[in-house]
Amino acid sequence: MPDPVLFLKAIVASGAVSAIVAATITLLWRPASASRINAACISGLAFGAVVGYRVLGLAPHWPPVDGLDRFLLVLFPAAVVIELIAGVHGVPRWLAWVLRIGLAAVAGRVLLHGSSYLDGSSSDWTAGQTWIALIVCAAVLAIVWGLVVWLWQRRGGISISIAVSQTCVAAGMALMLSGYLTGGKAALPLAAGLAGATIAAHLAAKRSACAGAIGIGIVSLFSILVLGRFFGELSTGRAVVVFLAPLLCWTTELPILRNRKPGLVAAIRLALVALPLAAVLILAQRDFARNSAEPGGAEYESYEY
């Protein structure tokens, strides 16, 4: 059963470590250029997430044995490395996006490696349907990644990273309610680390430069939702709604909102993103309660390999 106290400890530890690391790097690595602040945010997120996973006892196996292991040992480190490279001053923007699109293209395949979905033995999916789904997922990941980073480049601020962070929290809760407790737990340190690192670096440098951390958050959110859809009981519709929720931040680019005060813009972004997330969680809680009342009750950890 879920342990709320353990979850809280992991969130606090991850957020605190990420904030300390990001702020320390920002303050010591002077001058605090945009590329250096970006690197500080990425480093803080990475260290904070690792500490959070240690608190939760989520130690991946080597070699990886399931999708969560492949996320923690392959996709998350790959996203960190790619965003560090992309943030280096002088690296061509086209090269950064080639690397990002390359990761988006293989992310779903990596997560489903060795599963029954790829060889066609799944009772619900043929191999052809799975590959079509993976192609669509790759395109959606690349598009959302690009749109969220583009919005940050247009407007800056930390509200976008906080929006992605709150979306990761909602994704984790939705996974837990859909029967995949371990996958849901994995979202919590990521959310805390993203928020802690970007806020601390922003306060230390008096400016925001967190595109890399946002990109890592998007890849992590995608991975968590794919695991929940294929190895838990999270529905396709709810996974799509959660993943697309950060795009509602673009609403503040409408003429009526574009020139409002930054604080108001940030509040509107977070509120708009929270609306579909709240709807998904309400529905997930309703289903969980109904399943718990049935004979046998609701069970955690539903996998299909």
Strand-helix topology:
Blueprint: H1 4-28, H2 34-56, H3 67-86, H4 93-111, H5 116-119, H6 127-155, H7 159-177, H8 181-205, H9 211-231, H10 236-244, H11 255-258, H12 262-293
Helix pairs in contact: 1-2, 1-8, 2-3, 2-8, 2-9, 3-4, 3-9, 4-6, 4-9, 6-9, 7-8, 7-9, 7-12, 8-9, 9-10
Helix content: over 70%
* Major pleated sheet: none
Strand content: under 5%
User: Span from first to last CA?
Assistant: 23 Å
Order of helices and strands: HHHHHHHHHHHH
- Principal-axes geometry comes out as globular
Alpha-carbon Rg, integer? 19 Å
**pLDDT below 50 for ≥5 consecutive residues: which ranges?**
none
Total separate domains = 1
Round the mean pLDDT to the nearest integer and report it.
90
The secondary structure category is mainly alpha
- Please give the count of helices: 12
Total beta-strand segments: 0
Describe what you observe in this structure:
With 305 residues, this protein is mainly alpha-helical. The protein has one domain. Helices cover 75% and strands 0% of the residues. The chain has helices spanning 4-28, 34-56, 67-86, 93-111, 116-119, 127-155, 159-177, 181-205, 211-231, 236-244, 255-258, 262-293. Helix 2 (34-56) packs parallel to helix 9 (211-231) and helix 7 (159-177) runs parallel beside helix 9. The protein is globular. The mean pLDDT is 90.
List keywords for this structure.
305 residues, mainly alpha
Summarize this structure briefly.
With 305 residues, the protein is mainly alpha-helical.
